[in-house]
Amino acid sequence: MSKDRTFPVMVLFTAYGGSFPCNPCEAFAPEYQVVADSWRRLAPAAEKDRLFFMVATVENTRSAFERLGVQSVPVPYHFPPNSGSQAKGNANKPQSVDLNKVGLQAESLVKFMNQKLGYTFKTYRPINWRRLSIIGLVVSFVITVAVILLPRLSWRSFSFKGLGSSVVIVVTLMMCSGFMFVRIKGIPYMIAGRSGQPEFIAGQFQHQWGIETQIVASVYALCGACIVALVHRIPKIDNQIRQSVTAVVVMALFMAAYSAMMAFLRIKNPAYPYRLLF
C-alpha cells in the first residue's frame, strides 16, 4: 500500500484463482464481488470514490501475506487512509474481518462495514429470473394439485400423530446433516469448480455446500427407513420366503447406503480410511 494514500481500500486476501485449492475462497469470491458492485451502485454519489476494492492472491502478493501475518484465507482487510484529512493517526492500522464470525454472504460483510467501519450502503443483487421462474412453476404445480385433490379428501384420512412424527423426523434429519451450519454461515448451495462444472461436495471436513445437507439427510433417511423396516415391518410378514427375501433386499439396501456415506466422507477427505462395499 502507498504511504501517501488519501482514500481507504478494502482488500480481499485469498487463494482463489491460483494453484492452491480453497473451497471457502471459491465460495466467497462472488460474494465479495457483490459487495464491490453494491458500493459502486448504491453508495452516496459524493462517497463513491471514497472506497476502493482490491483482491490479493497468495501467489502474487506473498510478501503482503507475510507482513500482515495472514494465516488463513479468505480474509478481507480494511486499510484506512494514511494521509490527508481522513487520516486518523493510530486508527490507520488495517482491520481484518473474521468471516468465521461474520459469514460468507455479501449481506454479512456489508452489515459489518456499516456497523464497524462507518459506511452506509446496502447490498444489491440482480434479480435471479431463473430462480424466480423455478419457484413460480413449483408454486403453480402445488396450487394446481391442491385445487384438484383437496375437495376429494376427508380430514378424517389425516393422522395428526403421524404428521407430527414426520415433522420431528424431517427436522432431526435436517439438523444432523448440517442445516444450521449452512444457514448461519451463509454458505452457497453449490459453486462452479475450476473447470466450470458444478461442485456438489466441498473437499474439506470443516466446510460444506448447501446441497451436501440434502445428500447427507437423504442417506440418513434411507438408513433409518431400512432399520425401521427390519425391526418393525419385516417380522410381521406371514410368508417365510417372502419375509427372508425382503430382509435380504432391505439389508443390502442399508449396506449400500452406508457404503455411500463412507464414500462421501472419502470425497471430503481422501485420508478417511474406512469403506464397506465400495
UniProtKB/TrEMBL annotation:
The chain crosses the membrane at residues 132-150, 162-182, 215-234, 246-265. It holds the Pfam family OST3_OST6. The keyword Transmembrane applies. It is found in: Endoplasmic reticulum membrane. Gene3D superfamilies: Glutaredoxin. It is a multi-pass membrane protein. Signal peptide: none annotated. The keyword Transmembrane helix applies. One of its GO terms (cellular component) is oligosaccharyltransferase complex. It comes from the Eukaryota. Keywords: Endoplasmic reticulum, Membrane, Signal, Transmembrane, Transmembrane helix. One of its GO terms (biological process) is protein N-linked glycosylation via asparagine. Subunit of the oligosaccharyl transferase (OST) complex that catalyzes the initial transfer of a defined glycan (Glc(3)Man(9)GlcNAc(2) in eukaryotes) from the lipid carrier dolichol-pyrophosphate to an asparagine residue within an Asn-X-Ser/Thr consensus motif in nascent polypeptide chains, the first step in protein N-glycosylation. N-glycosylation occurs cotranslationally and the complex associates with the Sec61 complex at the channel-forming translocon complex that mediates protein translocation across the endoplasmic reticulum (ER). All subunits are required for a maximal enzyme activity. PANTHER family: DOLICHYL-DIPHOSPHOOLIGOSACCHARIDE--PROTEIN GLYCOSYLTRANSFERASE-RELATED, GH11935P. Belongs to the OST3/OST6 family. This is Uncharacterized protein. It comes from Dimargaris cristalligena.
